[in-house]
Amino acid sequence: MREAFRLFPDVKIVILTHLYGTPAKADAIRSICKAHDALLIEDAAESLGAIYKGKQTGNIGDYGVISFNGNKIITGSNGGMLLVNDEYSANKARKWSTQSREAAPWYQHEEIGYNYRISNVVAGVVRGQWKYLKIHIEEKKRIYKRYKKGLEDLPIQMNPWDVENSSPNFWLSCMTINKEAMCETQRSECGATYRSERGKSCPTEILDALKNFHAEGRPIWKPMHLQPIYRNNSFITKNGSGRGCSSMYQHNSSEDIGADIFERGLCLPSDNKMTEEQQKIIIEIIHRCFQ
Ligand SMILES: *Cc1c(COP(=O)(O)O)cnc(C)c1O
Question: pTM above 0.85?
């Protein structure tokens, strides 16, 4: 981030994402934002109920967003929530999200507006779900712990977190395969192939195996700087090198942490309706991939 601000000193807004319900290192990020007079917006779409240093995610930055999309820890089928710290911002967001209507007897527009409100029906569903948030987090945590225990003999890591300072909501259980245990695999833009090897596996092999059991896993979210729509823009990797634009796109996963996690990682089936019995079978299937 420091390197990014060196390259782009005029940046006014930083968005951080608490991925998979695991709180990001928000204090470190916020202090860099402060030093450069930039606002911090938290994408807490996945992390409702997760806690970082005693604060719920979405409450740490200047603004926060929560999603009630169908796949989140509680849902209204869609919709979401913007969290603000002051009345002025709340009123501004309410106005913009309801077509920017002015206080006039007719539809009076002095600025561009949007249709971003959620319906009363969706809001009602969210309120009905609200009381299940704690229960869902407990269920998700149990799922995570069963995976961690069930897969501990394999050359994999479960998604880690800053144990001292945060408690995730465990929305999705994820794993990465250790480098030395990756079988040969190739990814193109929209597909992947692999060669099965004894003692090794790769995300695609595991996802294929799960699919045969009608269980849905996913690759790790593909990082933004690898997305065709963005990858020609500059981006910063571990060693602080800005890439893109002038230089041709080059994938070097040894210094690109996001790319490396994408290559070796997958999201495991994490629905809280999954039974213990079903999860045992999933754990067994993953073991078979490494045989
Ligand atoms: C789901 C999700 C979104 C999108 O939320 P919508 O309510 O579908 O717009 C944004 N960011 C992250 C990290 C998400 O997981």
Answer: yes
